[in-house]
Specification:
The chain has 8 helices and 14 strands. The protein has 290 residues and is an alpha/beta fold. Helix 3 links the parallel strand 4 (78-83) and strand 5 (106-111). Strands 6-5-4-3-2-1-14 form a 7-stranded mixed sheet. A 7-stranded mixed sheet has the order 7-8-9-10-11-12-13. The two termini are 31 Å apart. It is globular, with a radius of gyration of 19 Å. Bound molecules: zinc ion (2 copies).
């Protein structure tokens, strides 16, 4: 009679440790190293997600280089890389990712924001092209597979993992993701601009009841209204409003403005946590379990 409850408890603990999110780059637009950004980090978007023994990477900003240095010891790797979009700050870490140079590794690269006629393969080959860049993706030794989809589709990158997607409001398009695994969900919603007073329905549907929502918090509401309407980004206050409206549990403030100092992020983190307990500001090295 006593065996069942004990077993249930062990399973719950295992599942929690099984699903992890780790931040390697949290900055928006351009890398911003320096004394004012040292605590939260200056690298651009790169996130590592572990669903059991499956590895998922979100975006390929400058933080991806450090992630690659860590992963280089884990061969052979088999992983899925999901791109929100192909703006430079989200792809510029790709050529410096060591696991791409290891022949036993295999990667599937996914994007859902491109217009008809354009493919992720083409975009990445044009970005790694002389005289902008000295070598082409042909130098990569790993198996690389490019998968284009249309934002809104539901993807199944591995057993027990469901990835829902939605189009975001950003110049040249972007895709928001919701990764569901083991009964938990993590959403990655960057880069996107909101319309004040009109919550984005696509985002609300994507993040409904989610455990963690990583959101484009480039600006404050004040900065946005004064100077940044039309720039394609959102605010941490809008992130909170969306989470509350959608019944999401925790906001992760992400895609920090390159000029946002650590002390300002401390203050934003305090306010966000007071408004929605458990909410945090993303920093390099932060690891969360949904
Ligand atoms: Zn960006
Ligand atoms: Zn962008």
């Amino acid at each position: 009679m006593q065996a069942a409850p004990v077993r249930a408890k062990v399973m719950a603990v295992t599942r929690e440790a099984d699903y992890q999110v780790r931040f390697w780059g949290v900055r928006g637009s351009i890398a911003a190293p320096g004394t004012g950004t040292a605590r939260y980090g200056g690298n651009t978007s790169s996130i590592e997600v572990r669903c059991g023994n499956r590895l998922i990477l979100l975006d390929a900003g400058t933080g991806m280089r450090y992630l690659g240095n860590r992963l280089a010891a884990e061969i052979p790797l088999d992983a899925d890389i999901f791109f929100t979009h192909s703006h430079f700050d989200h792809v510029c870490g790709l050529p410096f990712f060591k696991p791409f140079f290891q022949p036993r590794n295999a990667f599937r690269l996914w994007a859902g924001h491109l217009e008809a006629g354009m493919t992720l393969h083409k975009v990445l080959h044009e970005f790694m092209m002389a005289p902008l860049f000295p070598v082409s993706p042909g130098v990569f030794a790993a198996k690389m597979e490019f998968r284009d989809f249309k934002a809104g589709e539901t993807l199944a990158p591995g057993p027990g993992i469901v990835v829902r997607t939605a189009p975001l409001n950003h110049p040249n398009g972007a895709t928001g993701y919701r990764i569901e695994y083991g009964g938990k969900s993590v959403c990655y919603v960057t880069d996107t601009e909101h319309v004040p007073g009109t919550p984005d329905r696509n985002v609300l549907a994507l993040i409904a009841g989610a455990d963690i929502v990583i959101y484009d918090c480039m600006y404050t509401d004040e900065e946005f209204a004064k100077s940044y309407v039309g720039w394609g980004h959102s605010t941490w206050q809008e992130g909170l409003r969306l989470c509350k409206a959608a019944g999401a549990k925790r906001l992760v403030v992400f895609h920090h403005d390159p000029d946002r100092a650590d002390d300002q992020l401390d203050a934003i983190g305090r306010e966000a946590a007071a408004a929605l307990p458990g909410s945090v500001v993303a920093r390099e090295g932060l690891t969360l379990a949904p």
